[in-house]
Design a protein that fits this description.
This protein is α/β, with parallel strands linked by helices. The chain has a single domain (38-278), classed as Ureohydrolase domain (Arginase, Chain A). 27% of the residues lie in helices and 13% in strands. It contains seven helices and eight strands, in the order ββαβαβαβαβαβαβα. It has helices at residues 65-72, 94-106, 134-140, 163-168, 180-196, 228-236, 260-278; strands spanning 2-3, 46-49, 85-88, 110-114, 150-154, 173-176, 201-206, 243-249. It has an eight-stranded parallel beta sheet with strand order 1-2-3-8-7-4-5-6, with helices on both faces. β4, α3 (134-140) and β5 form a beta-alpha-beta unit. α1 (65-72) crosses α7 and α5 runs parallel beside α6.
């Protein structure tokens, strides 16, 4: 496993820095203090930061997300080699490019989208590709499997009564955040697993699926969201699914406090890397990975 951010010395190429010997506040700021991809002969996984927020509709700042997530990830402990890609940082527009790349390899993937918002509106400010419309563009290109895809954590006011029916016509099924109180974490996990089954799965997590109390550093916060414990438990419950790729997006450090949001994103990314390693589609070290979004 490696990081593509900063160059690491050659004596660190076999794994992360030992935190019992070198303090977490010291050394390079790569994800979980892992070596660079360029310093590993055959990396099994590449963690890609995408410093981009040109698709935002409200508060910019997600371009600083990758660096902040890497900084917060100093607290993580890595002890195994998982097996594909996880993309971190940037606004949610980057998922569109990732889905295109994964479609070239797998065809339409099952898409499980954790978000406070549907992201299937047609345009924002006349722009067709934004963080609130990219899933409609993806649907138009048949990048995801309409019989196996869903939103989780949707809440807040919509633009029109027809937004939900329009979204459903694209193939999405929705678990609203208010349903979490009724069916609990186990119920959410059961619905996702039943919907996805054994299809190749792409997991996209907008950090604003969390309540602002757990993720204040994001561009379009919505009250009434998940706790970090609920999100981590749900992601953990997807173990064994045919996960092929994932992203964590919309971390905006200018609005964060005490690295709450960045640490949440880093921990979620770490959890998803573990799922990739357990996936039945896990790529063996040395084999080209599925995408570079």
């Amino acid at each position: 496993m490696s990081d593509d951010g900063e160059r690491a010395p050659l004596d660190r190429v076999v794994g992360p820095v030992d935190a019992t010997k070198i303090p977490r506040y010291a050394g390079l700021g790569t994800f979980a203090r892992l070596p660079l991809t360029s310093d590993v002969e055959k990396p099994a996984v590449a963690i890609l930061g995408v410093p981009f927020d040109a698709g935002t509709s409200y508060r910019p700042g997600a371009r600083f997300g990758p660096a902040a997530i890497r900084q917060a990830s100093r607290m993580l402990r890595t002890a195994y080699d998982p097996a594909l890609d996880v993309t971190i940082g940037g606004d949610h527009t980057i998922t569109y490019g990732s889905l295109r790349a994964y479609h070239r390899r797998y065809g339409p993937v099952a898409l499980v989208h954790f978000d406070a918002h549907l992201d299937t509106w047609d345009t924002y400010f006349g722009a067709r590709i934004t963080h609130g419309s990219m899933l409609r563009r993806a649907a138009e290109e048949h990048l995801f499997d309409e019989n196996a895809s869903m939103h989780v954590g949707i809440r807040g006011p919509l633009y029109d009564r027809s937004d939900l029916s329009s979204d459903a016509s694209l193939g999405f099924r929705t678990i609203h955040c208010r349903e979490l109180d009724e069916i609990g974490v186990a119920g959410v996990i059961d619905r996702i697993r039943a919907r996805v089954a054994d299809r190749p799965l792409y997991l996209s997590i907008d950090i604003d699926v969390l309540d602002p109390a757990h993720a204040p550093g994001t561009g379009t916060p919505e009250l009434g969201g998940m706790t970090s414990r609920e999100l981590l438990a749900i992601v953990h419950g997807l173990s064994g699914l045919n996960l092929v790729g994932a992203d964590v997006v919309e971390v905006s450090p200018p609005f964060d406090h005490a690295e709450i949001t960045s640490l949440a994103a880093a921990t979620v990314a770490y959890k998803m890397i573990g799922l990739l390693g357990l996936s039945r589609s896990a790529v063996k070290p040395g084999k080209p990975s599925a995408s570079r979004a």
